[in-house]
Specification:
The structure is a homodimer. Chain A is mainly α. Chain A has helices at about 15-30, 40-45, 50-60, 80-105, 110-125, 130-145, 150-170, 180-195, 195-220; strands at about 35, 65-70, 75. The first copy, chain A, folds into 2 domains: about 15-75, Arc Repressor Mutant, subunit A, CATH 1.10.10; about 80-220, GntR ligand-binding domain-like (Four Helix Bundle (Hemerythrin (Met), subunit A), Up-down Bundle). Chain A has 9 helices and 3 strands. Chain A has a 3-stranded antiparallel β-sheet with strand order 1-3-2. The first copy, chain A, is globular. Chain A binds a DNA duplex through α3.
DNA sequence: CTTTTGTTCATTGTCGACAATCATTCCGGT
DNA sequence: ACCGGAATGATTGTCGACAATGAACAAAAG
């Protein structure tokens, strides 16, 4: 047994670090959807070789945050309304699966982790910023997915959740009613905590579908002409 | 509108070509699970630079067919029984979703494509080889997924289906009863062709879960000690 | 003999330079 | 003015060399 509470100083390889930096920039909205990414410029900004940023970009392609057009360039992924529908549908399906599995195998420690995440959400809903609320929301969902005990499910969920974040942060969706958020998540976690597998599955699907439908409705309402990333604004804030 | 069934002569970039070659070798079983892959040797065999094979390997990592151990090496993915369970569960969920969506929006052309794929399966079941049967089976399922109209669902499904292929081909699972295969798939496609969404979802989940359970049972029966890729046999046939 | 430490070697990580490709621009012809 | 095609510039694709790292082995201490 190692020394308690002493994590190894994880040294990321350069390309991983670069990928992390780019990922943050994209998910925070600093890099707009559809923005062009050139290897040379990134290499200069990051003080590293082009091959290294190339590796980083390929990682992000695998995550669905960047698209590669051969011999032409790399773009920050631009999501159409069709894409948001696809992502919402997929997310609902995966969360429903996770909820069912989680309810089947939840134990004392699992309950604690869920309740802890739920408390964080409550706190954020009362006095936190919008960003904190979004973070707590995603944190709770991630906790539920982890509860399923299915590592691959978690991986695929992360991929999708990250892409969902793409348009959540970019469009700064405001939550109408803070207390509603808490209520909804209480309904979501209750059957899981009770070990009610089918109830959890139903609740999770309803929860995800509703939030997905709301996002799609919000984007439709905006009626922005960026059906396919036509806007392609440049970088909002420099790296 | 282009000429029917005439795809442009896609010249893959070198790293894509290398990735394709490696993918084939892995999925065909020529490269055993857990086999070590060294950049230098592959570069020599493929007559290309190390950086290029590196890019190819990274693609395969994203597909879940290869694992990367930093500063240490690349391995062909080795799946434990836990992994097969995870993959089966995920696949079942995605196929159920696809079946429901497909049943909701099927049209005349969709019906034709499904029936065509089903015919191929029937033919393969009667007079084809085992490989052909597996290919037709996967083809039918892929057709159903495409029917959902959800591109991302297709992408995630492909990732999982490829990993499933990893242990299907490696363990050469033999089908006991050819006619059973056809029967089962008839039950699967019938509600979809009828536009029965909930029936399709139920049938698809049942179909996938059963096949997954059978595979897990088969692997358990084999009781091979490769719980975590400990076997790590070398390359069976040279590239 | 076991455990720890030092060393060597194979392999990955990173880099800068050159080649292939694509998008644009410019020019001549009509 | 309009259109086609060649030149041009920018960007990605590919390569070989050097540095950093980890794993296996050997040596020394207990």
């Amino acid at each position: 047994m190692g020394i308690e509470g002493l994590a190894p100083p994880q040294k990321l390889s350069l390309d991983r670090a670069a990928a992390a930096s780019l990922r943050d920039a994209i998910l925070s909205g600093a890099l707009a959807q559809g923005a062009r990414l050139t290897e040379t410029r990134l290499a200069a900004q990051f003080n590293m070789s082009r091959g290294t940023v190339r590796a980083a970009l390929q990682r992000l392609v695998a995550e669905g945050l960047v698209t590669q057009r051969p011999y032409s360039g790399w773009d920050v992924a631009a999501l159409s309304i069709q894409d948001t529908w696809e992502l919402s549908t997929l997310r609902a399906s995966l969360e429903a699966l996770a909820a069912r599995l989680g309810a089947e195998r939840i134990d004392a420690e699992g309950r604690r982790s869920v309740e802890r995440a739920f408390d964080e959400l409550r706190i954020a809903a009362e006095g936190g910023s919008a960003d904190e609320l979004v973070a707590a929301d995603m944190g709770l969902h991630r906790t539920l997915v982890a509860l399923s005990g299915n590592r691959r499910l978690g991986e695929h969920y992360d991929l999708i959740a990250n892409q969902v974040r793409l348009y959540i942060t970019s469009s700064t969706i405001v939550v109408k009613n803070m207390s509603t958020v808490v209520e909804r998540h209480r309904d979501l976690i209750e059957p899981i905590l009770n070990g009610d597998a089918v109830g959890a599955e139903v609740a999770a699907k309803a929860h995800s579908m509703r939030s997905g439908a709301e996002i799609v409705a919000f984007l439709r309402e905006q009626d922005r002409p960026s059906k396919n990333g036509v806007t392609a604004q440049e970088v909002r804030t420099p790296l």
